[in-house]
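Below is a filled-in request sheet from our internal design queue. Each sheet records the structural input a requester submitted and the sequence that came back. We keep these sheets so that new team members can see what a complete request looks like end to end.

REQUESTER: design group, bay 2
PRIORITY: normal
MODE: inverse folding
CHAIN LENGTH: 197
BACKBONE (tokenized):
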């Protein structure tokens, strides 16, 4: 092989490696995150599919001294302004209804991420839907069914969905209020949902 052929081969290998890392890295990281959610959980054990878990109030209040049972999933960053809520949806089991309480003007967001390509495809929150209480139907691709009257519909491009919620904590004295609101962000299967729940 000539020197030029070696350079060409090296260049092709580098381009292929760059493509593989760029394409697969986000998926690998989301796979690790999914395993962290479903197997390790947030310190109280695994977080079941189609449920949401809110960071414990005590952990948020003192993130630098987490309890021994705290998961690395919830202690990897020191977040002092928003209380996180996480979950993983499997919409093959049927649509889910996300309920958010009346936030009375407080900033919050619930982000929906497609793990197949690491893109956020929908948000519910102060900037997109307002802060009043509401219910939102989340369905997988190809779902055919009746949408409850007047309920906003979020159509997911994938049956697997990462859900990340955040509720603003305005001060140390506000942690309990923010925690109470975060715990009211819930998922209910459409098959179990009753209007006015």
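RETURNED SEQUENCE:
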């Amino acid at each position: 092989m000539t020197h030029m052929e070696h350079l060409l081969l090296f260049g092709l290998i580098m381009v292929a490696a760059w493509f593989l890392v760029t394409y697969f890295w986000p998926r690998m990281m989301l796979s690790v995150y999914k395993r962290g959610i479903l197997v390790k959980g947030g310190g109280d054990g695994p977080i079941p599919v189609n449920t949401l878990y809110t960071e414990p109030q005590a952990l948020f209040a003192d993130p630098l001294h987490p309890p021994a049972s705290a998961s690395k999933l919830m202690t990897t960053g020191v977040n002092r302004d928003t209380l996180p809520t996480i979950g993983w949806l499997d919409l093959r089991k049927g649509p889910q209804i996300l309920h958010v309480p009346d936030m009375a003007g407080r900033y919050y967001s619930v982000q929906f991420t497609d793990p197949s390509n690491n893109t956020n495809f929908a948000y519910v929150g102060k900037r997109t839907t307002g802060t009043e209480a509401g219910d939102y139907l989340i369905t997988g691709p190809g779902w055919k069914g009746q949408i409850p009257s007047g309920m906003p519909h979020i159509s997911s491009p994938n049956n697997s969905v990462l859900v990340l919620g955040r509720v603003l904590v305005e001060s140390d004295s506000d942690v309990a209020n923010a925690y109470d609101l975060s715990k009211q962000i819930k998922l209910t299967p459409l098959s179990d949902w009753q209007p006015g729940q």
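SHEET NOTES:
- Confidence is low (pLDDT under 50) at residues 73-78.
- Residues 39-191 form a domain with the Immunoglobulin-like fold (CATH 2.60.40.1610).
FILED BY: M.R.
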